[in-house]
Amino acid sequence: MKKIVLMFMATIFAANLFAQQDGQFSQYMFNHLAVNPAYAGSREAFNITMVARRQWVAIQQGAPNTNVLSLQAPLRKKKVGLGLEFTNESIGPKQIGAVKISYAYRIPLLSGKLAFGLRGGFYSYRMNWSKINYKDNADYYAQLVDQQKGLFSGDFGLYYYTKRFYWGAGATNLNQATYYPVGTDSIQNNSNLVPHIFSPIGMGFNVSDKLVVNPSLMIKYVAGAPIGIDVNCNFLIDEKLWLGVSLRKGYGAAVLMMWNVTEKLRFGYSYDHGINKIGILGKSSHEVVLSYDFNIFKNKTITPRYL
């Protein structure tokens, strides 16, 4: 593999130290489990979802690539939901593998259900320092050998949903595990996973028998970075095809589609384009989602109104 330019490496460190560390997804509204363990089991079916995201495709070496396989299901008594996720991500010289296990407990509340969720994540971080093209070979990092570190991270979430409405709040990396134990004290102090907060809210409106409108909002917060906001609006046509647009504060826009191929099978695609500096340099990002529901209890009750 050719050397990765130092300018892009600086962008990676800026993202790790001062901005979002957790994965970025444009189609989170079709699978909230990616940002909230309390979502586990809420589809009332055994669900398998695969996500592949290729970000900033104009950057040929080192651009973020993320692949996720998630499984979730309610237990027979339906108060408990379980989730399992396998994640593989590469960002420049950094590679991350993770296995995450989610537990959700759901109680009736008003016209819907309120779920409390816990998640434990087991991560493998590998830093390939030798893949960086250093402007100054005397740089501290140029002297380092490749490193690998395993760690545990804990998450918590709340998720309330009805047939027409949802709201969630998920917090990740609550134990702030260390993943780069190198360098001076000042560098080590900035090498932890930091808590991220994700809070989506959305509601479905029936315009007609053939059209449902689903506006939604995602608020993202991590210490040391500006609050992130995604404003989304999706349209469900004839209970078959979702079309939507998303505006992301400080970045740009995304368009997406989700096709309900059958009652159980869904296929989604999103196209992102940024207007900030990294968005202009990296140009477009692409995300593909494939999801299938197994009706293990023969009583699947998913509504198309809020996904």
Description:
With 307 residues, this protein is mostly beta strands. The protein has one domain (4-294): Porin (Beta Barrel). The chain is built from 3 helices and 17 strands. Residues 1-19 and 184-190 have low confidence and may be disordered.
Q: Record the strand order, biggest sheet.
A: 2-3-4-5-6-8-9-10-12-13-14-15-16-17
Say which CATH homologous superfamily is assigned: monomeric porin ompg
The amount of beta strand, in percent, is: over 45%
| Individual helix count | 3
What is the β-strand count? 17
Protein traits:
mainly beta, Porin, two-stranded parallel ribbon, 3 helices, 17 strands, globular
Architecture blueprint of SSEs:
Blueprint: E1 4-5, H1 6-18, E2 46-54, E3 65-74, E4 80-91, E5 94-109, E6 112-127, E7 132-133, E8 147-161, E9 165-172, H2 185-188, E10 196-203, E11 205-208, E12 211-222, E13 228-237, E14 241-248, E15 252-260, E16 265-274, H3 277-282, E17 284-294
Parallel strand pairs: 1-7
Antiparallel strand pairs: 2-3, 2-17, 3-4, 4-5, 5-6, 6-8, 8-9, 9-10, 10-12, 11-12, 12-13, 13-14, 14-15, 15-16, 16-17
